[in-house]
């Protein structure tokens, strides 16, 4: 659909009910977080630079993957200007709460875990001081040096009790699948602080992380995007078959920005394999799909288009969308999903669950305030 047509359709429609957006990428410029670092690291950066891995593939949009119209009037990087974010996203789409998911994940692929821990603390403190303190609608995500679970748990306990921090966030690129017991100290701290553990796509094949597919590295960005479900599927199977949800029954996990409908056949496959092979993992006491429905949530962007509404409804039902799916826009990235255009028309109860209640329940957010008049 042409961008001009989308703009025209949006102009004719107003968001009457407020919504929750669970994926807003505020920009944490490295130079902005530098003052939050210990002097030893500031001196090292001055001498040798940031020493962080970078992307291997070309993205879409402008300025490395951003919407063409998302650059603030002052010329700063998209997602870095709070006032412009208010005018372009929070106000026009009647966003009651938005979860900030940041940009500087690259420290999670560094071999220097102490440096990564310092960077994560700096990102978290900067977010609290410059974003959460200045906009009550925004909530934060705790960045952690996932390559060292003990340092990660320390950071979760340090900043996780902040009233506006609502989840712990990591990139999907990792050294080991996230169900591995190596990560248990992280989940113990998440449960202690009552914070979901969110896996956001990024960093496969970078730094110390494993390749982005089981067959090795891909050549092109569209190929990389097509393989995102493969990585998330590996993490999900790991959580279930390693028994994480039996050891930490209240832990909630969010799969972010890898699509939604691929989950339906994957859950069917896991259930079938579990029936035949469950003697190998006797600690997995329920069908894999039951753990998914009780402990896992998924964000909507990018929602796969279906050939017709009948298939759409069947797949939404198959993933139990009324309990598991949460809306996210992915602002300000080039593949931003407008709340007005992301879904075909939903039944009112389902719309309410996807656009507000599922996220409110997961993150412990208040009920919606009075509706705005059209």
TrEMBL record:
It comes from the Bacteria. GO terms for molecular function: hydrolase activity. The keyword Metal-binding does not apply. Residues 30-365 form the Amidohydrolase-related domain. Pfam families: Amidohydro_2 (PF04909). Keywords: Hydrolase, Lyase. InterPro entries: ACMSD, Amidohydro-rel, Metal_Hydrolase. The keyword Secreted does not apply. PANTHER family: 2-AMINO-3-CARBOXYLMUCONATE-6-SEMIALDEHYDE DECARBOXYLASE (PTHR21240), ISO-OROTATE DECARBOXYLASE (EUROFUNG) (PTHR21240:SF28). This is TIM-barrel fold metal-dependent hydrolase. It comes from Ammoniphilus resinae.
């Amino acid at each position: 659909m042409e961008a001009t047509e989308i703009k025209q359709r949006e102009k004719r429609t107003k968001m009457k009910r407020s919504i929750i957006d669970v994926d807003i990428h505020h920009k944490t410029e490295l130079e902005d977080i530098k003052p939050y670092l210990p002097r030893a690291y500031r001196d090292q950066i001055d001498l040798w630079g940031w020493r962080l891995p970078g992307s291997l593939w070309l993205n879409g949009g402008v300025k490395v993957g951003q919407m063409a119209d998302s650059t603030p009037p002052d010329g700063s990087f998209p997602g870095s200007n709070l006032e412009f974010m208010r005018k372009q996203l929070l106000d026009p789409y009647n966003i009651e709460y938005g979860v900030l998911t940041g940009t500087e994940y690259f420290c999670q692929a560094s071999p220097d875990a102490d440096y990564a821990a310092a960077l994560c603390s700096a990102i978290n403190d900067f977010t609290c001081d410059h974003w959460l303190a200045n906009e009550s609608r925004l909530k934060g995500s705790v960045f952690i040096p996932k390559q060292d679970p003990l340092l990660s748990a320390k950071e979760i306990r340090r900043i996780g009790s902040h009233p506006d921090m609502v989840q712990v966030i990591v990139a999907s690129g990792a050294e080991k699948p996230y169900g591995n017991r190596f990560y248990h100290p992280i989940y113990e701290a998440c449960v202690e602080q009552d914070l979901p553990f969110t896996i956001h796509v990024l960093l496969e094949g970078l730094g110390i992380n494993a390749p982005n597919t089981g067959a090795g590295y891909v050549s092109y960005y569209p190929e990389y995007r097509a393989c995102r479900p493969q990585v998330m599927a590996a993490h999900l199977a790991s959580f279930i078959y390693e028994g994480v949800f039996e050891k930490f029954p209240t832990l909630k996990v969010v799969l972010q920005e890898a699509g939604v409908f691929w989950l339906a056949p994957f859950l069917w496959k896991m259930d079938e394999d579990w029936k035949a092979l469950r003697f190998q993992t006797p600690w997995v006491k329920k069908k894999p799909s039951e753990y998914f429905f009780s402990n896992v949530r998924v964000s909507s962007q990018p929602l796969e288009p279906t050939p017709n509404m009948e298939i759409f409804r069947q797949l939404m039902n198959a993933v139990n969308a009324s309990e598991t799916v949460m809306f996210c826009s992915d602002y300000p990235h080039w593949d931003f999903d407008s709340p007005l255009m992301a879904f075909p028309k939903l039944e009112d109860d389902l719309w309410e669950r996807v656009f507000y209640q599922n996220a409110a329940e997961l993150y412990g957010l208040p009920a919606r305030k009075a509706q705005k008049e059209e």
